[in-house]
Amino acid sequence: MKPYSSLGAALCAVSLIVPPSVFGQSSDSASKIQLSGYVSASYFYATEPDGRVITGRLYDRFSDQFEVNAARLTIQRSVAADRREAGFQVDLLYGQNAPQIRSAGLSLGDHGDIPQAFVTLNLPTGKDRYLRFAAGKRWTMMDVEYVDEVLNPNYSHGYPYIYVSNFTDVGLSLEAKLSTVVEADVRLINGWDVVEDNNKAKSVMGRLGITPSDKVALSFLAGMGPERADNVHDNRYVGQFVGTFKPAQKTTVYTEFDAGSEEGLAADGGSVSWWSTGLWGVFDVWPKASVALRGDYLDDADGVRTSGVFGFPTADSRQLQSFTATLNIRSWDHALVRPEVRLEHSSRNDFGGGAKANQMTLGLAMSYIF
């Protein structure tokens, strides 16, 4: 998986998705203050909306309505891997996407947010090795998909990203590039999607990344900590595997498996659990266009991850699955045009205001990336 120094560089990659990291920046690119960002708008139509709302969705959440999704600006100074130096990054987000991923305790108004704001300190430890410390607010360590949808294979987010992971966290992190093959990250954070800690305990996440070749990248993550307000006794536990594979020059495959549990949420006071999985395929079918296919599944066995979230009714259990096909067109410089179709099925009648178990959405998103 390739690092990036700007969102514009992401579109030049062979595959559409690029990890949110400044690992491997050259000394020249790291020495300057950089500006990047994008503007996105979209229109989606759902066969079974609840009024105007598309149940269960993140950014594409209104049916038959044009959306001003995002005006995003990043200001950053990257740090080179071979220098002892400091850097920073600040992301500003305005638009209808902002309230969907906003952390508790920080707001720039109804349609504004700061998804990331952090300082980095780089300490080289040898050839192709370094330690990097960071403090502040950052995207989650989890998932194939990211907050910035222009970096994802599809426009809409899958169920694993929306319901199994956090979007952002605030805390301290240590990133270690141990060799050309192995890297490790550890974060001590206030909790999931909170700027102001909602209890007196911290959460921890750790990730091990292994890249044995330019065709394979593997990531193993685990995390734990109490996430409910004023509760330091009941922990949430999560584990995740993400694999990136390049079986052919014009094909990239992503896999993800998640499992989690939380103490004290069952009716008898015991633990609840959930798991999810996803499979993505990105195929470069033309020089300036690719097709991205995604299939994902979520088993919310006790209903705790989806009940009352983004329009889903309360339920004691729910299983969700979807299939999404997106055409990513890059025929215009700096522009990304994305027609998309998505099919969804729920084990309950969750769509159409509680009338249907199946739903289809059709949409078009357009972004200018700089």
Description of the molecule:
- By secondary structure, the protein is mostly beta strands.
- The chain is 5% helix and 52% strand.
- The two termini are 21 Å apart.
- The chain has a 16-stranded antiparallel beta barrel.
Query: How many DSSP helices?
Result: 4
The CATH superfamily name is Porin
Shape: globular
Question: Major sheet: size, sense and barrel closure?
Answer: 16 strands, antiparallel, barrel
Helix/strand class: mainly beta
CATH class descriptor: Mainly Beta
Tell me the strand order in the biggest sheet.
Answer: 1-2-3-4-5-6-7-8-9-10-11-12-13-14-15-16
Architecture (CATH level 2) name: Beta Barrel
Number of structural domains: 1
> What is the N-to-C order of secondary-structure elements (H for helix, E for strand)?
HHEEEHEEHEEEEEEEEEEE
Spans where pLDDT lies below 50 across 5 or more residues: 1-27
CATH topology: Porin
Helix content: under 10%
Beta-strand content estimate: over 45%
**First-residue to last-residue Cα separation:** 21 Å
Extended strand count: 16
Give the radius of gyration.
20 Å
Overall pLDDT score: 92
